[in-house]
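hey so i finally got around to running the thing on that chain from the lab meeting. sorry it took forever, my laptop kept dying and i had to restart like 3 times. anyway pasting the input first so we r on the same page abt which one it is
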Amino acid sequence: MMQRLNAIGNLTGDRNAMLKLISEEERRLPNDHMVYVLKGWALGGMGEYGKAVKAFDRAIQLNPRSAWAYYRKGEVLRDQKKFREALDCFAKAAQLKPKRTDFWLEKGRAEEELSQMNAALQSFENAVSRGENTGWGWYGKSRILAYLGRLEEALEACRMAIGINRREEEFKMHEKFIQELLRE
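ok and heres what got predicted. didnt touch it at all, straight out
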């Protein structure tokens, strides 16, 4: 059943179909935390944020070391602009699974939203040093460095992001922005 849930989620994204299967799994496996992680993910994608948070809280109650439950809960809280609470979840997820670069990226984004620039810089650096390969770690680092007035370093980090992902227009626009600041 769990394979079917993952397949539906990955192939179709049909959250209603997932919720139907999840209800069956809840009855069959009421103590499997991943059922509640998937339930929260499906509900969050449907805008049912309160129900999603409850599902993630149940997953965490069943398995307090579930990095995915914290991470997905953080995403739902971030979508609601509850950045302080989201940061707590992303920090816990990164602590539990420090090799996951996406956990560090989201932690950095939440810190940036909360104007915790030095902490955000460290989170983006953690993502980069752990092999983040989409360019978003370098880009996040570049944004923070620009904010801190460290423009040469920001330009270098932005160019690293572009080198990893040449198609991302946001990276190119940021490079132009930094170049304009350097000319001033």
